[in-house]
Design brief:
mainly beta, paralog of FGE (formylglycine-generating enzyme), 4-stranded mixed sheet, two-stranded antiparallel sheet, 3 helices, 10 strands, Sulfatase_Mod_Factor_Kinase, formylglycine-generating oxidase activity, CTDL_fold, SUMF_sf
Length: about 300
């Protein structure tokens, strides 16, 4: 994805965070970002395939696993990723193990595991990419990952006084404005995309012309995760958190209990008011850097 697919934003001071929904989103504070450019859409399978073809890059999900990263493991660990699997009916929404499973062989080429493919999905966001994979791609194209603040600023589309990127109603006029979960989670898949990724740009852009800043896939940022924003907006509220993230309704459970945590933003096709009300600009979630799942992707900034 070249510079022609980027949108340049002037930057400015905005109200970051929320105190309405989840504690990690607070406190609300003024934050200033300098001018920057950001990709119009998430990096696609076609974009990532070009990177791999040019460099021979092997993603984290495709590499052999170091058993030292998984103390106490009782069986051999094969390379793979986390795959969402709908349940047959209602389940305890506090137990992510009901719908997430580790699938050996899952990778960006086979997002749902062996037998799956990205054929016909060239315009879908690439998934099953860990933080290192996103950074490596960004470096290849001469860009970087956006900061958490840059992502939130861009997702707001110039409006920091509303809950969603499009207003205060999650479904204005009963119409979804982003690719999020419709129906009862995690078993009733409704809508055009039915609990899967959609081609980038399937939903209307925000006022900056950016698509899918909300929904479709969670996106990596460069931000080291902290449990709260700093009240003055100048930095972390405490030392960076390490150790396994909990699946708090955000992206996915951690893979390694020893990896550092990064902040992901934007929500995904698995977000829904009854489970993960995080398809909002202020929403944020922790993910271990080695996490590769079917609902985390990324876009670049400069």
């Amino acid at each position: 994805m070249g510079t022609e697919d980027m949108v340049r934003l002037d930057g400015g001071t905005f109200r970051m965070g929320s105190q309405e929904f989840y504690p990690e989103e607070g406190p609300v504070h003024e934050h200033t970002v300098a001018a920057f450019a950001i990709d119009r859409h998430a990096v696609t399978n076609a974009d990532f395939a070009a990177f791999v073809a040019d460099t021979g890059y092997v993603t984290v999900a495709e590499r052999d696993i170091d058993p030292n990263d998984f103390p106490g493991a009782v069986e051999d660990l094969a390379p793979g990723g986390l795959v969402f699997t709908p349940t047959a009916g209602p389940v305890d929404l506090n137990d992510w193990r009901q719908w997430w499973r580790w699938v050996p062989g899952a990778s960006w080429r086979a997002p749902e595991g062996p037998g799956s493919t990205v054929e016909g999905r060239s315009r879908h966001p690439v998934v099953q990419v860990a933080f290192e994979d996103a950074v490596s791609y960004a470096t290849w194209v001469g860009k970087r990952l956006p900061t958490e603040a840059e992502f939130e600023y861009a997702a707001q589309g110039g409006r920091d006084d509303q809950r969603f990127a499009w207003g205060d109603d999650p479904y204005p006029g009963g119409v979804p404005r982003a690719n999020t979960w419709l129906g009862r989670f995690p078993y009733e898949r409704v809508g055009d995309h039915g609990g899967r990724t959609a081609p980038v740009g399937s939903y209307p852009p925000n006022s900056y012309g950016l698509v899918d800043m909300i929904g479709n896939v969670w996106e990596w940022t460069s931000g080291v995760y902290t449990a709260r924003h700093a009240a003055d907006g100048r930095g972390p509220s405490h030392d960076p958190t390490t150790g396994g993230a909990t699946c708090c309704g955000g992206g996915a459970p951690p893979i390694s209990p020893v990896a550092a945590l990064r902040t992901i933003k934007g929500g995904s096709f698995l977000c829904t008011p009854e489970y993960c009300f995080r398809f909002r600009p202020a929403a944020r979630s922790p993910q271990s850097e080695d996490t590769a799942t079917v609902n985390i992707g990324f876009r670049c900034a400069r």
